[in-house]
Specification:
By secondary structure, this protein is α/β, with parallel strands linked by helices. The chain has helices spanning 21-32, 52-62, 77-87, 106-116, 154-161, 176-182, 193-202, 224-227, 231-246, 258-279, 283-296, 304-316, and strands at 10-17, 38-45, 66-70, 92-95, 101-102, 120-131, 149-152, 173-175, 206-219. The chain has 2 domains: 3-227, Spore Coat Polysaccharide Biosynthesis Protein SpsA, Chain A; 255-316. Strands 1, 2, 3, 4, 5, 6, 7, 8 and 9 form a 9-stranded mixed β-sheet that branches.
Length: 324
């Protein structure tokens, strides 16, 4: 290690990989080329059937900062994530899927923010979305008033998130000790474990936002987030909220009202989807979204999204059933 490196923040980056050999080298090189930090990379090959194993071995041979774990059988992404968390060391932690990659200076900006603000548990930023389909990808809804970064309280972060996950995972850098203290991803949240994790971390510390592109998030046919959308996605978000609030989040929600607010906003999101389904002429989907929204929060009938849906249904399809 260069003597200067002893004064730089260290970032442990876990790269879970399953059949993403075509993306892996770009991902790893984007980590190794980061400045103002020292890095250690752990590639976890979850029993890939492509060239991931051979490529990972070459990357580890070429650079001592790269290590490899190979699974004899596939154990799934949640267990792989949690294995990486348990293995981490150093000051900071990043979980970077092999099909994503960092942009220059990302780790320096994230760790710099947290070095200046000890109260911040994790930092995230903007991401460029690359791929043939970008529908449904949330852009961070964080106003910075022209400043390069912003510090959010945990409650502010939850309020800004609303019914959506406003954080794209490749941009998230967490204090390593905090990540391990908070534990791993929940195995029953296959499609919304990241959302629950950000909420869990926000419950114990502030959140830093960097108003700059930090990473590239790929959307492609093999990516889980492409295939998982619509009603199933809303239901996964509901599971994340319920898991989060089941842990008794008193610091963020002393009155107990935040859970109700989050579920109502999720219901309003369901009504928005119902309206879009009507625009497509998909009556069954509109009905499914509408009924799901009402099951989450009957008081969401007072929302603007419900009234818009009611008006649209009346104009285009005739009145909604009388029991609504």
């Amino acid at each position: 290690m260069n003597p200067v490196d002893r004064h730089l923040p260290s970032v442990f980056v876990v790269v879970p990989c399953y059949n993403y050999a075509r993306f892996l080298e770009q991902c790893v090189q984007s980590i190794l080329s980061q400045v103002r930090v020292t890095v250690e990379v752990l590639i976890i090959d979850d029993a890939s059937s492509d060239d991931t194993g051979a490529l990972s071995e070459r990357l580890a041979q070429d650079d001592a900062r790269v290590r490899l774990i190979r699974h004899p059988r596939n154990i799934g992404h949640i267990a792989t994530f949690n294995e990486g968390i348990a293995a981490a060391s150093g000051d900071y932690f990043l979980l970077l899927s092999a099909d994503d990659y960092l942009l220059p200076g990302a780790l320096g900006r994230a760790t710099g923010l947290m070095e200046r603000h000890a109260e911040v548990g994790f930092a995230f930023g903007r991401a460029r979305v690359e791929g043939k389909s970008t529908g449904g990808v949330p852009a961070p809804a964080v106003a910075t008033m022209g400043q390069p970064e912003r510090i959010l309280s945990g409650r502010e972060f939850v309020d800004l998130s609303g019914p959506r996950n406003i954080v794209l995972s490749p941009t998230v850098v967490v204090r390593r000790k905090l990540q391990q203290q908070m534990g791993g991803y929940l195995p029953n949240l296959l499609h919304s474990g990241d959302m629950e994790m950000w909420l869990r971390l926000a419950a114990v510390g502030d959140v830093g936002y960097i108003d700059e592109d930090q990473a590239v998030y790929r959307r492609h046919d093999d990516n889980m987030s492409i295939a998982y959308d619509g009603l199933a996605d809303l239901m996964a978000r509901e599971k994340a909220f319920r898991a989060f609030f089941a842990n008794g989040v008193r610091k963020l929600d002393p009155s107990g009202r935040l859970e109700h607010t989050c579920l109502q906003r999720l219901a309003e999101e369901a009504f928005r989807h119902a309206s879009m389904a009507l625009n497509r002429g998909d009556g069954p989907a509109a009905t499914a979204f509408r009924l799901y929204g009402l099951s989450l929060s009957p008081t969401a009938r007072l929302s603007v999204n419900w009234l818009k849906l009611l008006a649209k249904q009346t104009i285009r399809r005739g009145p909604l059933s009388s029991n609504l």
